[in-house]
Structure formats: C-alpha cells, structure tokens
Amino acid sequence: MKKLLICVLTVVMFLAVAVSASAEDFTDITSEHWAYEAVMHLSSLDIIDGYPDGTFQGEERISRYEAAVIVSRALEIFDITAEELREGIEEARDAAEEVAISSEEAAEMAEIVFEIVEKNDTEEPVKVPEELTEKQAEQVEALIKALTYELEEEIDELSKLEVALQAMETRLDLAVPQIMKVPEIETDMEELKELERVTFSGAYGLNVSDVQLKEVGEDVETVYENPYITEDEISPETTFEQSLNIETDINITEDIDLNLGLAGISHDFGVGTDVDLALTNMVLGIETPEIILDAGTDRSVNYTPYLFGDAELDGINIMHKNSDAEFFVGREVNEDDTFYLGAQNRTSVAGVDLGARIAAAAADNELERAIDHKLLGIDAAYDLSGIDFEADYVRSIDGEKEGSLIQVNAETALELMELGFNYRDVNPEFSPIMGDEDIFDSNNIYVDALNPGLRGFNVEAETDLYDMDSSIFFARVNPDQSEGEENAVFFEIATQKEDLYVDDLTVGGYYNYENNADNQVEQVRGTGVDMAYSGIEDALFTMAYDMSNPVEEDETFNSERKMTMGMDYNITDKFIFNYGYENIENMGMYEDAEKRADVYGLSMEEYPVLDNMMLDAGYEIEMIEGTEYAEGDYHSLEEHTGILSANASYALDNAVLSADFTRTSKDGEGLDEKLRQSVHSRADFGVEYNIAEDTAVNVEYGLGNFSSPNPDHDYTLQQVNAGLSLNF
User: Fold this and answer.
1) Has residue 167 got a pLDDT over 70?
2) pTM higher than 0.70 for the full model?
3) Which of 221, 448, 491, 656 has the fewest CB neighbours in a 10 Å radius?
4) What is the 3-state secondary structure (H, E, C) of 587-606?
5) Residue 21 CB neighbour total at 10 angstroms
6) Furthest C-alpha separation in the chain
7) What's residue 540's pLDDT?
8) What's the half-sphere exposure (Cβ side, CA atoms, 13 Å) at 325?
C-alpha cells in the first residue's frame, strides 16, 4: 500500500509538468538532465505529452487546465477515488520515516494534497484546483525531484516483475495442453474403475432352530407340522446351521474372464478350525473369445432326450464358441459313483444341419476294465419346400445288449392349418444314457418315449378355421413290439370358440377314443363340453360336463358322468366369494361309486387396517360325500372341512412384523379314526429387521396344537427360529 501511495502522490504532484507533444524525445531536455528518465517514463505512459513544437518547457509554470489533464490521466491509470487517496495519505504520514524525504517535506506534501482532496471530496476521481500558488508550485517541483529518485527503485522492481510475469505466461502456455487433458484422464480413471480386475460378492447366513413337544398324548408316535399332510413330519430337536456363499469374478485380460463360486454349510457352532464347513457347491467358469468352461457340482447338462436329458452332474463342460462343439466329463454321486464322458458337435453342409454325439458311462468299480456302455448318435435337420424335417439315429452298446433308436419328425404350416408328424422306433435292446422322461405323445397317455420296445407314430393338426381353435390328434403305438400284442390307439378331436352367440361366452368340446392295453377298460369313448362366461361385471362362471363310456358294457363297468361348476365373484376390490361344485356318477366307471363335493369360500385380500398394515383373511368350507371303489372294495369319501385363516403384516422404517393364524377342523367317516372330529390350530409370529442395507436379522415363533376326542392323540408343538443374513 505504501508503494502504491508513493506512485499516486507522485502523479498528483505532476501539476508542474506541461501538456501536449508526442511521446518522442523532447528537444529542450537532454539525457544528461537529472529529470530526463522520469519525464520520458511519464511520456511513455501518455500522462504528459509536451508542446506541439516538440519542447517540454520544464522551467515554465502550468495552468489549472494542464494540471487537470495530468491528474485525470494519472487517476485513470490507478483507478483511485478521493476516499482511497485520503486513507493512503494518512498511512504515508505514519510511514514518513521510511520514505526518502524528510518528515517536514512529507508534512508539507500532505497539506497540499489534503487541500486538493477537500475541495473535490466526492466518490468521483480527484480533481485538481483551478490554479496553484507560486509557493505550491515550488513545493510540487521539489517533491517531484525527490519522489522521482524514490521511484527509480520501484520502477526497476516493476521491470523485474514484468519479466517474471512473462516467464510465468510462457510456462502457463506449456501447461495448458496438459491441463486440457485432465477430463480425458478422469474419464480413463472411471473406465479403469469399471474394469477392476477382481470383484467379490457373496452371502453369509446363520440359522438356529428349536423344536419342542409339549402335552404329548400316549399314542402319539409321529408328529407333523400339519397333521393332515403326512409329508410334514417333524422331529423335536435343536439345530444350528451357518452357510457361506462366495463368488469371485476375475478379469484376467480384456477378453478372458474367470468366475469362481463356493458354497458351504456347517452345523457346528462358532468359527475357526474346529468348524466343519461342508462344501455343498463349487462352480468354476472361464470364458475366452474361443471357449466357455463350466465346472463344478450339480451342473446342468442337456444334450438330447436320450443322452443327458436335463441331467445334473458333478463335472466339467467345455463349449467351443465358433464350432458349437461341446465336451463333458463328470460323475453322478450314487451307490456306484457312475462316471460319464460325452461330446457333441454341429455343422452345416449344403443347407442340411448335421449333428453328432458320442458318450460313455461306467460305474467306479468298472473303471479297471473297458467302459462297456457306449452311445453314438447322429441327427439331421432340413427345410424342404416349407416342411421342416428332423431325423435321429442312435446306436447303443450296453454290455452284451445292442440296440437302436430311429426318430423322424416333420411339421409344416399350410394356409388353413398346421400339421405335425412324429415317428419313433426304439429297439427293445436300446439303452439311453440318463434319458429324459419325455412322453411319446402330447397327452401323456402312453409309456416313456425312450422305453425299450416302443414303436409308433402320431399325427396332429391345428387350425383356427371359422375363428374356432380346433385340433386333431391320432397316435398308434406298440408298447413292446410284440407280434401278437394289440396296438394302443388314441384319437381325439377338440375345438373351442370364443364369443359364441353371446359376448364373453367361450364354449369348447371334444371327442376321443382310446384302446390301451394298460387300461382296465380296453376301449373307451369320451365326450365333453366346457363353458366359461365373463359377461357379468366382476364375475366368472365355468361349467364342464365329461362322459367316458366303455365300448362294450358289462356288469362291472358303466358310463362315468362328471359335472363341474364354478363361480368367482369380486364383491369389492377387497372381498371375493367363490363356489365350486363337482358331481361324479360311476366314478372310475364302477357302478355305485359316486362323489359329490361342494366348496364355499369368502376371502379378504390386502385390507388396509392401519397405515403400513395390511390384513388378509378367509374362510372356506368343503363338504365331500360318496363312495369310491379301490382295492376290491367300496370306501366312504365323507369328509367335512372348515378352514379359517388370517395373516397381517406391519411395515416400519427398518422392520416388518408379521402374524399368521390358521384353524382347520375335520370330520367324516372317510378320515382316519385319529383325524375325526379333530382341530388343528397354528399361530406364527415373525420380525425381520434390517440392521443395514445388506444385513438383516429375523426371529420367528410358531405354536401348533392338535386336539381330538381322544387326548392320547393330542400334542402341542412349539418352534423357534432365529437367523442372520449378510450380503457383501
């Protein structure tokens, strides 16, 4: 601030300098003059110009107009106001001892400047007085001389600063291209983050379960979570289980990825070397531009229905991308620990898609000798004038047995219908390797498609003529290729029509004929109609009538007649009523075997009880009457069931509370004696709390009670489960 003040005051004092000439050397001042450098410097800044004749006239006095021009030019350069100037003078007065003039000169200079400022005290640039006295002019002249010498050092410093600034500008010019690359570098860094070489993910789970029996009757031998479902057997015990799943993805190079997955379960409590973590699943995957490798436990392998038909094996499968070639080696963990080898490939020749596959299998105890179960298959697919043909030929060798499979399929789309034809001949000695359980025909009527000894064909047609979805199916099969055995035959024609005479009314019907040696009735004709009507708002009505007739009636078999009806009605968007009816006469075509069932239900779905609290509830009644013929005798079907259920859920910020209740009552002669007049009640309560985004704990408590007229059959079941899940 002090140096700036000196510069400003110097300019203000230039009232003794003349005004109008060029910035070139003046004719009346030489370079030897003590003020030459100062005059030339001010001239170069266009603060002073001299006179038109090229002189400076440094000894002459100046007018107020000339002084006003000089001060105005100086203040334009420094852009300073009167108030700023006044503050600068005060600072200069305090620092007078540091200036190369005496304190008396500084005081006199300040007096003069203050007089000028006082007369022009505005926010506008300072204006000089109209004229200076002779004494003021002499004082200004003396100060100019002193300040000029003072400014020589400052000018030198400014020159050095200018050189430094030029150097900095040069360096900045060199740095600008690098600075412009910063966004590109940031983009590259983000891409690099996305291409991290190794990523980990997985899950950890911990679960503790405790099952206890209370008030157990003397005759209770087996306990069920639901006594009416015998598959729900449960044992009183305390179990602990912790599981760990880890998946690792490694980007080895830009084109090669590796994936490793491990899963294990431990029933030991705690951590460390004493914990027995059983490896339940292991997966290794590698993908390159040429191959895909998939290895591990329970790998899905699916070549054809006769070879690895939707099998799950422990092993390695390798696929070559460019050629579609596959190779598999693995085993099935069983009593024999069977090992498998398989390979297949596809190619195209002259528009024909060709495939070939080879496989072998052997039990662990057979590996010491040659593998004797082998299979070789070829297939072809070709489009001939809009008809898609497929053909397979497979040869199998299993020990001393040699067999074959021949299969031909064709399908085409005509103007009015779609046609399909399938033929299969399975030699009695044919032995597939892990064959799929596909069925020969679409109605699942006959034996397995790959059952040795199967020979037959089927034809099917589908059309939508007259806006009716219709189909015809015919199959003829010899189950074991025996000469004297009568072929099994099945024929069916079915049709369905929407909006028949009435909007929203769909009507369908069928007729079929079956001659199946495996059936208790050798020949059966069947007819049926069905209907669905949705023309009433929020309601759906269905009805079906089916009749099966033995071709040759006798005293044992009679026509079976079955009628079913149903109705679903949405009372509101929350309440639904449903009814179902079924009536069967001569059930199974046995005389006096009949069944009638009525089902009534009322349910409430997602009813908002409170904010964030939803309630579902329902009540259902099922009444079954009648008798059935089984195991050479007639048995009662009487069974009456009532089911009341309700469940509610309440959502908090990080937790969900749930409660479920079910009460089932049963009675009827068709039930086991222990279940007659019985009631089973079950209540479950649960809390799931999210500790963090990927971490949750849950606690469940269940209480079940079974009661009947005989207390020796009763029991109470209590279950507690607690778990922790963590994803990373």
Assistant:
1) no
2) no
3) 221
4) HHHECCCEEEEEEEEEEEEE
5) 19
6) 156
7) 96
8) 8
